[in-house]
Design goal:
The complex is a heterodimer of chains A (620) and B (453). Chain A is an alpha+beta fold and 620 residues long. Chain A contains 18 helices and 23 strands. Chain B is an alpha/beta fold and 453 residues long. Chain B has 14 helices and 12 strands. Classes of the chains: A alpha+beta (620), B alpha/beta (453).
Chain lengths: 620, 453
């Protein structure tokens, strides 16, 4: 409880996507939160693309929303265009995406955070942490101000000792045009934390009037879009077009010729695996047989004169950027307001964290967001949310929230971070989730409801919205167990009078749920459920049935792994004393310090032999 | 709690029990060197690694047991990956017993079946497929079988499995690319075509390995063939004709062979156990009756039956063993007139015409045997599956590949489940190679070894 001006339960360092989720959810749960930021005007700022969601990321935004987070709600209000990606592919990879009006979004964030009573925004820069017998005591700001607190969530993003690279130029900054933060890294290193440097790229911003729009292709969003938030009522957003162009051989030639002038071009560091590296240099080099790449022209906000060239992340020298872009017909006379640049910054290898995002060695200290080596607003927001919840639980001495790989993409994200060594900025892909079929965007509410309730993440109104949806899901499932005749199915001309449960017929690829007789679904629905939600749940139940064989396979696999996931390994286990463990295993396990046997099995380089040794010694 | 790597030291006799010139006792584990020093009364620095050292062996109370040659292999360059010591002593069971007792008193224990090879696997010296082949190599009953198992031990099967895996992973990356990347940026043509091509190659490799199992199993397990027929029809003579050795007793009196005699030989490299049987006829003779009973139960255990009869006599024995592949042969054609023989040969009714005594038609009989057991001497497979475990895993792999191929044809709408099937196919291979080993699999495999391997 807040006792004096400079005493809080939690201090959140940084006001980006991770920071605001952490602050908001902790405050919602009752903590008094100090949000320390160097620039209160920059809360929730989008550093590059004005877009939220996308492949795998859209699923995460849905999960954030199901767990009481803000991102989805803001995106539903501030969007210019909404599109479901991967529609022509299986439902388990459908991902919602929205083009965002940045100004609106940031204004929404500011208004919301300011209005929360439990959050106090403090302008300042955290340079030190206070220890109190290997637990946190508080933070120290530049200038000497001390803030006492029980827990700290560090979400410094790319600001720690940030350096902006454009071609050969190096500019100290946290983001282009914003000062960086120096000091806390050194302090954390002194406390024993490991740190390293990462680089990510951003795309250039062009002047709207310098683009020949007649030579671009408009792309509209969906006519009947789905919102991100389960709480959104009927959804009738704008549908502003977004425009695309394609690169060509001449563009690629210029890039390749000058590739060694790009500080972000990674060369062959990452080996031959099909890794997706974000810069245009990497794309052109790696996919050299690809004649052109798609670029999206995204306005910063509606009618803005600043256009992001999405798909062209780069740190090539400014004149190379311009010269290569000019080879695209629409860009013949292009003028850049801001060149693409790479930002180099301190990050902290997340193997130092537990799966609660708390550091293993300092109680009460949590890391979330880009500072853990991830890239993307959605990845950051997801971590911030979990860190905020767990910082509150830490102070409260209640059980923290740990999502597993089978529960959510957020679970996959955190498990990957704490178990594997991050060498390049981590971005979520659906293929990272081995149980992808279970983790659909349209069932996030169902999957995560028990967590939201147990950890108190939703308001009563929000809870009843989800409950209505889950009830509807159950009613649909029940209806499908009723018996129907094949000849009753619409659009399928079968004279066959064969009868059977509707869900058995639905397993056939040619039969769709909306082909089933209408009187099958004879239950009534509360008028508060919007039509997009009804549609979505019907289609999700259909997917459940069509995927049922595969869903069962996954569930069986999960059951098999349960035992391994529950066998705990204590934090300070001494691997070097274990005879029979390979040297590599010893090194990796000492570095990662897995919390369960299941996690140990996922550490790279660990063989079945090593696992056998562990089992004998730890669990004898 | 399953058996995992134990960290104590174990020993066993590596040679079969009985009298022989040399017996080898092998030990593995951290206490090896210490035990060796104690049993030889030599200082550590005198034991030069990988050198054969002639030395006396002493019992715990100081008596000399034997003069032996000992070799010390320090970890990790040994069979098991731990310290290994081999003692070659004189092949007397008494001596072996004494050495064992001494080792026991020094704190070592007797190994469990297959423990040496199991540790070799667990320490990464052999992959699981190779480990399995060790037992089979030792048990090889024919030259061909030995060759085949040796190739597996050298990693040939493993290489083939990796080839399949490579194709699967290629197809998988293309599918995943389509799901995770192409929508937002890159558009690649022909993903369906290319991944289908890779899957079809994988299916081919998989299929050829699956069909090789039948042969592979035959080489290891061998075949049991029984010869049946009335008394005095010439079974034993035929027996001797095929094996070219007088193992059975032949006489002109019907009912001579009172017992079944097993003789092992090979046809085309396959180890075959040929079972000679008592002549089946009604008899009041007690001994003969028992012989006949034994014959009937013998039939049930066989892979192939040769029913021998003479021209003009009925063979009533057919019906009782319709489940087992059967060859019918008419013997003693040397006693038939030429015209009679020609008439018979015109309507063979699936029968062969031979003379065991004159050794006529024996070649054709052998060919017919090959046909019945689906065997071809000119087999093209160079690598074989040899265990049920391998067969099951590859079958599962093949089923998953088939599902993926069928689904792919339906287009990108189902790419996410195509991915699940391909991943399951890869998982089946990984289990085979021991990359992700279920506990019980390990136990299953190594329990079938003999102690000392």
């Amino acid at each position: 409880m807040k006792q004096s001006k400079n005493q809080f339960d939690i201090v959140v360092v940084g006001g980006g996507h991770a920071g605001i989720e952490a602050a908001h959810i902790a405050a919602f749960k009752g903590s008094h939160v100090a949000l320390v930021t160097m620039d209160p005007g920059a809360l929730g700022r989008m550093s590059c693309n004005p877009a939220i969601g996308g492949l795998a990321k859209g699923q995460m935004v849905r999960e954030i929303d199901a767990l009481g987070g803000l991102m989805g709600r803001f995106a539903d209000i501030a969007g210019l265009q909404y599109k479901m990606l991967n529609r022509s592919k299986g439902r388990s990879v459908w991902s919602p995406r929205a083009q965002i009006d940045k100004r609106n979004y940031e204004a929404l964030v500011r208004r919301t955070i300011i209005s929360i009573e439990n959050i106090t925004i403090i302008t300042g820069e955290v340079v030190e942490l206070l220890e109190r017998s290997s637990r946190l005591g508080g933070v120290v700001l530049r200038g000497g101000t001390i803030i006492i607190c029980g827990a700290v969530v560090l979400t410094c993003g790319t600001f720690l000792s940030g350096i902006v690279h454009v071609g050969g130029r190096k500019i100290p900054a946290g983001r282009m045009g914003e000062p960086r933060s120096v000091g806390i890294t050194e302090h954390l290193v002194k406390m024993g934390f490991k740190t390293a440097r990462l680089k990510t790229g951003t795309p250039p911003r062009a002047l709207c009037s310098s683009i020949d729009w007649t030579k671009t292709r408009p792309v509209y969003g969906d006519i009947d879009p789905s919102p991100f938030s389960f709480q959104s009522g009927s959804f009738n957003p704008p549908n502003e077009p977004c425009y695309t162009v394609r690169t060509n051989a001449s563009v690629h030639d210029i890039i390749i010729e000058n590739i060694d002038r790009s500080p972000m071009y990674s060369g062959d560091i990452f080996g031959t695996g099909p890794r997706y590296c974000p810069s245009i240099e990497d794309k052109v080099k790696r996919f050299y047989d690809q004649p052109s790449h798609l670029l999206f022209l995204e306005p910063e906000w509606k009618n803005s004169d600043q256009i992001y060239i999405n798909g062209f992340s780069t740190s090539l020298p400014e004149e190379i950027q311009i010269n290569s872009l000019k080879k695209i017909p629409a860009f013949k006379n292009i003028e850049l307001l801001r060149p693409g640049y790479a930002i180099e910054y301190d990050f902290f290898p997340p193997s130092q964290l537990k799966s609660t995002l708390e550091t293993k060695d300092m109680g009460g200290l949590f890391f979330a967001g880009q500072v853990n080596g991830t890239s993307g607003y959605e990845e950051a927001a997801a971590q911030g949310l979990i860190a905020g919840i767990n910082a509150h639980c830490y102070n409260d001495d209640t059980k923290p929230l740990i999502l597993k790989r089978k529960d959510a993409y957020i679970g996959v994200l955190i498990d990957d971070l704490v178990t594997k060594d991050t060498l390049e900025p981590y971005r979520m892909f659906t293929s990272r989730a081995e149980y992808r079929i279970l983790l659909r965007y349209s069932n996030a509410d169902d999957r995560l409801f028990s967590f939201s309730k147990t950890w108190g993440l939703l308001s009563d109104v929000d809870i009843s919205t989800i409950e209505d949806r889950i009830k509807m899901r159950g009613q649909i499932r029940d209806s499908l167990s009723k018996s129907i005749s094949l000849s009753d199915i619409k659009n399928i001309h079968i004279d066959n009078n064969q009868r059977g449960p509707a869900n058995t017929f639905l397993k056939r690829p040619e039969i769709k749920i909306f082909d089933l007789p209408d009187d099958l679904f004879s239950f009534s629905l509360p008028s508060s459920i919007p039509s997009w939600s009804i549609n979505e749940v019907f289609l999700d139940v259909e997917a459940e049935i069509k995927y049922s064989g595969y869903i069962k396979r996954h569930r069986d696999e999960i059951e098999k792994q349960k035992k391994n996931e529950s066998l705990k390994i204590w934090n300070n286990f001494e691997y070097s004393n274990l005879p029979g463990l390979s040297l590599e295993a010893r090194e990796k396990l000492t570095n990662v310090r897995p919390e369960t046997l299941g996690q140990a099995m996922r550490v790279s380089g660990i063989t079945p032999a090593d696992i056998s040794v562990l089992m004998v010694h730890i669990f004898r | 709690m399953p058996n995992y790597v134990k960290t104590d030291t174990y020993y066993s006799s590596a040679t079969p029990p009985g009298h022989s010139a040399i017996s080898i006792i092998r030990m593995s584990g951290p206490l090896c060197l210490k035990a060796l020093c104690k049993i030889t009364k030599k200082a550590r620095k005198k034991i030069i690694p990988r050198n054969a050292i002639l030395t006396k062996l002493y019992s715990n109370n100081g008596h000399v047991i034997d003069m032996a040659v000992v070799t010390y292999y320090p970890a990790p360059f040994s069979y098991t990956g731990k310290d290994v010591v081999e003692i070659s002593c004189h092949g007397s069971p008494v001596i072996v017993e004494s050495v064992s007792l001494s080792l026991l008193k020094l704190g070592l224990r007797l190994s469990t079946p297959g423990e040496f090879t199991r540790d070799a696997f667990l320490n990464g010296k052999l992959d699981l497929v190779q480990a399995e082949s060790v037992a089979r190599l030792i048990q090889s009953k024919s030259q061909r079988a030995a060759e085949m198992n040796s190739r597996i031990l050298q990693g040939d099967l493993t290489k083939k499995l990796f080839k399949i895996k490579e194709c699967l992973v290629d197809a998988l990356s293309m599918v995943e690319f389509e799901l995770d990347i192409s929508e937002e940026d890159l558009f690649r043509r022909g993903i369906k075509k290319h991944s289908l091509a890779k899957l079809k190659i994988a299916k081919e490799y998989c299929g050829s390995l699956i069909t090789s199992y039948n042969e592979g199993r035959m080489y290891n397990k061998g075949l049991r063939i029984a010869i049946l027929g009335r008394p005095n029809v010439g079974k034993s003579t035929l027996f001797n004709a095929i094996i070219e050795r007088d193992r059975a007793i032949t006489s002109k009196e019907p009912g001579t062979t009172r017992d079944t005699i097993d003789v092992s030989f090979s046809i085309g490299g396959i180890p075959v156990t040929l079972v000679d049987t008592a002549g089946i006829r009604e008899s009041t003779d007690e001994i003969e009756k028992t012989g006949v009973e034994r014959t009937m139960s013998e039939i049930k255990r066989c892979d192939l039956i040769v029913v021998l009869s003479e021209a003009d006599t009925e063979s009533e024995l057919q019906d009782s063993f319709s489940k087992v592949p059967t060859i019918k042969a008419i013997n003693k054609i040397d006693l038939l007139e030429k015209t009679k023989l020609s008439k018979l040969e015109r309507t063979p009714n699936g029968q062969l015409f031979i003379s065991a005594l004159k050794k006529t038609g024996i070649g054709k009989l052998k060919d017919e045997i090959y046909k019945k057991i689906n065997f071809s001497e000119k087999n093209t497979a160079d690598v074989f599956l040899t265990t049920q475990r391998q067969f099951n895993s590859l079958l599962e792999c093949g089923e998953n590949i088939d599902r993926a191929i069928n689904l792919l044809a339906r287009g990108s709408m189902v790419f996410d489940i195509v991915s699940v099937d391909i991943k399951s196919a890869v998982a089946s291979l990984d289990i085979l190679l021991g990359k992700t080993t279920a506990d019980d699999i390990l136990n299953n495999i190594f329990e079938n070894f003999c102690v000392g391997k």
